[in-house]
Recover the amino acids of this structure.
């Protein structure tokens, strides 16, 4: 990490974020991590809905708006009434001096607010206009509300693949489809900036949760498109293969295997389990035999794992270089030494909550240190600062405040 005073990789890029929740803001936080100035334009009073979504019943309980923090660090917040003429004029001036505008507002809202690509390009022809949608920009469903739980997980058929045989237990974690989709949006923005460097012209880039869900499950969808025959779903004890199942240990932990190369891993696996008898057992000694007798093999392996605690099996499997992992609790996942060693979990000095840690964006660039993580901004925290920077006088700012066109955090 580098101090904020150092010159960062994207330090000459100004981004206007007119977005809410997770998908678009998560792309912008990566831009901010590498030093871009990200000005987050929020509605008066409420701001980004994600400021309060940590209060949803069922999520981890905290006074801190932790979903908002992870996707909005190192940004500047400007609170504007974009429906007002004066508020929209502020946005026009921001856009005129910006490199990128990012939005995930619904298409009808963009039309009402004069925030479509043609509107923005008329103000700044060199701008990269980045649009994220739920269902895409065309087709009958383009105006539908879209969230990752629907567009990414369900419509991609990923849920069909992972839906437990016995019945569904819980939803996917908050933002688990939005964040990988946000990385796609980030890639699109950087591609657009590269195109502008080559052509001196701005452009529109876009992605959708629907497209990202399909891409995430593209191998299985390609199977369908290629006419492959899908097998019926089976319960765990009658699974088609033992190589990627979860196995309970004596201390009630879950061990996950991933023996992708079963020909290479079969002998080391038997050695790790101290089950050399498998090698000479006609039921299990060959791949074909194991397929024929898979339920029996799964029972034998399950019974063996149940005889020892997780620490024993981790040691044995590591000794024999067998691909595996423990199914981590959130406490273990957050305090993973391997994550700390690779700057995946990094320090955060929060002015209100003190010394804590946060999740880093998921890639590095050699010779280009990231900005030190800071607190997510309060609603309208930087309104006055940003307006002064684009030429507004104190008297003009005061008038905008009195007319309820802007909001400044006091």
């Amino acid at each position: 990490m580098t101090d904020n005073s150092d010159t960062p990789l994207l330090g000459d890029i100004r981004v206007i974020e007119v977005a809410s929740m997770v998908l678009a803001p998560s792309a912008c936080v990566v831009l901010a991590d590498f030093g871009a100035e990200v000005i987050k334009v929020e509605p008066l009073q409420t701001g980004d809905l994600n400021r309060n979504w940590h209060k949803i019943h069922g999520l981890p309980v905290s006074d801190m708006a932790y979903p908002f923090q992870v996707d909005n660090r190192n940004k500047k917040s400007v609170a504007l009434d974009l429906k007002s003429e004066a508020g929209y004029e502020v946005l026009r001036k921001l856009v005129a001096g910006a490199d990128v505008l990012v939005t995930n507002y619904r298409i009808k809202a963009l039309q009402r607010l004069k925030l479509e690509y043609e509107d923005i390009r008329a103000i700044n022809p060199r701008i990269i206009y980045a649009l994220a949608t739920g269902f895409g920009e065309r087709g009958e469903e383009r105006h539908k509300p879209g969230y990752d739980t629907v567009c990414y997980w369900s419509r991609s058929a990923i849920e069909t693949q992972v839906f437990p045989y016995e019945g569904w237990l819980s939803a996917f974690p908050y933002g688990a489809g939005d964040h990988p989709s946000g990385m796609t949006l980030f890639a699109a923005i950087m591609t657009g900036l590269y195109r502008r460097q080559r052509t001196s012209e701005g452009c529109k880039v876009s992605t959708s949760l629907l497209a990202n869900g399909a891409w995430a499950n593209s191998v299985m969808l390609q199977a369908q498109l290629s006419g492959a025959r899908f097998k019926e779903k089976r319960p765990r004890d009658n699974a088609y293969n033992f190589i990627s199942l979860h196995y309970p240990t004596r201390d009630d932990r879950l061990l996950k295997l991933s023996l992708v190369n079963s020909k290479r891993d079969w002998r080391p696996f038997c050695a790790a389990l101290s089950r050399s008898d498998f090698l000479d057992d006609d039921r299990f000694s060959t791949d074909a035999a194991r397929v024929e007798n898979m339920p029996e093999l799964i029972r034998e392996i399950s019974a063996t794992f149940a005889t020892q605690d997780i620490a024993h099996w981790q040691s044995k499997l590591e000794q024999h270089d067998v691909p595996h992992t423990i199914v981590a609790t959130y406490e273990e996942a957050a305090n993973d030494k391997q994550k700390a060693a690779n700057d995946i979990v990094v320090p955060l000095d929060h002015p209100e909550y003190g010394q804590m840690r946060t999740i880093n964006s998921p890639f590095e660039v050699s010779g280009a240190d990231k900005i030190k993580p800071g607190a997510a901004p309060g609603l309208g925290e930087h309104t006055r600062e940003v307006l002064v920077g684009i030429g507004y006088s104190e008297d003009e700012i005061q008038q905008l405040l009195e007319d309820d066109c802007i909001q400044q955090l006091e």
In short: The chain has 19 helices and twelve strands.
